[in-house]
Amino acid sequence: MNILTDIIKLPELLAPAGDLTRLKAAVDYGADAVYLAGEEFGMRTAADNFGYEDLKTGIDYAHKHGVKVHITCNIIPHNSEIPRLPAFLENLNALKADAVIASDMGTMEMIKKYAPDCELHISVQSGICNYETARVFYNMGAKRVVLARELSLNEISEIRAKTPSELELEAFAHGAMCVSFSARCLLSSYMTGRDANRGDCAQPCRWSYSLMEEKRPGQYFDITETDKGTYILNANDLCMAENLDKMVSAGIDSIKLEGRAKSHYYTAVVTNAYRGALDSLVTVKDWKCPEWVTQELNKISHRTYSTGFYLGIAKNCQTYENAGYVRDYSVAAIVTGYENGFVTAVLKNKFSRGQELDCLEPKSAPFFITANELSDDTGNPLESAVHPMMTIKIPYHRPIKTGALLRMKTE
Predict the structure, then answer these.
(1) Contact 71, 102 (CB under 8 A)
(2) Phi then psi dihedrals of residue 23, to 5 deg
């Protein structure tokens, strides 16, 4: 499908921010907005999340660069948590957060009362699969709804056609998929006592299982199994980079990237890749995702990719052999400056002189740089850089942006 010629503006690129470092990476690498959580009420306790001072610093940094900040408040709260919500929401309002994301109706009412200057966004956990539900949330004061992952693009197009144009539609384009409907799951609570609906999922859907039926002959689940079991619940990752034109044509206002618990490296690479893909939509009539974008998305830690439910009947959505990630690249160093013909960088993983490094600058396609010479911060030649956080120097013919990632392919 070709991109529509009458589209006035690209959708927002919404990136995850698990902590202040990852927020800055998302901003620097091209996000239009970031979403994050405070120390309570968010759905990712595995992420470091933001205390008050980091929230203030992060919101200020994002706003200085023209980037919006959406705060997740999307747990299903219990009675004991309700008394702490007003103060939390009042702080978000005072800090000028742009939006608060919620799934619980009581929380939604409290957001309108205690954070009146923040937009109300309805979380994916609300399971919005039709235009009537979307309209109800709009009538309740929602500025945006995050659509269920179980929808096709045709269904989204119909929702767009039958809801007020002022209601924004947000949809996931990349990242981990949950085996349960729109991430509402009791498996973790049942098996481990960790409540997935309050941000503490143990991810038992990624565990290895064996199926046994001892007392009901003839009732069986035909399943391929090794002596290590099988990963019958393991969902593949979503990747819609090659179909962004279809997402835009369906009327989606915000392209969302999953991954608040992922690394700084993941945040930078996936944000940069989708920024490049989106920007290319406005310059190419017969659009095809740039090859470097798809290559970049294979350089981050990921499971096998699929397009989920977007293109109709879900295909290639589960991997039964294992729940592991593909990890082919590591960060060698992070660029800190350029002086007298030398790039300076802080070492993250050891490498030797002569190493070819894959360089990713913010908001750019990657390129290669070879460490034909390597020295420490005082100019002493090195055969190998081995001490994490040491400063190294590599000659190069032009400056490389601060914060750029120097990567190497793992063996």
Answers:
(1) no
(2) -60, -45
The whole-angstrom separation of Cα 52 and Cα 35 is 15
Reading the block at residue 120, the tokens are 């109300």
pTM of the model: 0.84
Q: How close are the terminal C-alpha atoms of the chain, in Å?
A: 38
- In this predicted structure, the answer to whether residue 163 has a pLDDT above a threshold of 90 is yes
The H-or-E segment that residue 20 falls in is helix 20-28
H-state helical runs in 250-309: 264-281, 291-297
Q: Which two tokens stand for residue 169?
A: 């539609």
Q: Which two tokens stand for residue 22?
A: 């990852």
pLDDT the model gives residue 233: 62
Nearest to 253 by CA among 13, 1, 3, 4: 13
Residue for token pair 């608040």: 260
- φ/ψ of 327, rounded to 5, equals -130, 100
Which are the contacts of 291, defined by CB distance < 8 A and separation ≥ 6? none
DSSP conformation class of 4: P
Q: Vertex 58, ends 54 and 60: CA angle to 5°?
A: 120
Mean pLDDT of 227-239: 69
Torsion of CA 277, 268, 199, 204, to 10 degrees: 80
Helices (H), 172-290: 187-192, 244-249, 264-281
Q: For residue 26, what are its two tokens?
A: 């998302």
Asked if residue 272 lies in contact with residue 29, where contact means CB atoms within 8 angstroms, the answer is yes
Q: How many CA atoms lie within 13 A of 391 on its CB side?
A: 10
Residue 280: other Cβ atoms inside 10 A:
17
Q: Residue 297 class from Cβ within 10 Å (0-12 exposed, 13-18 middle, 19+ buried)?
A: buried
Given a contact cutoff of 8 angstroms between Cβ atoms, the answer to whether 69 and 34 are in contact is yes
Structural domains of the chain sorted by starting position, each given as residue range(s) with its CATH number in brackets:
12-180+238-306 (3.20.20.70), 329-409 (2.40.30.10)
Match 């929401």 to its residue by tokens.
89
DSSP string covering 198-213, please?
Answer: GT----GGGS-B----
CA distance 48 to 200: 13
Give the pLDDT confidence score for residue 1 in this predicted structure. 41
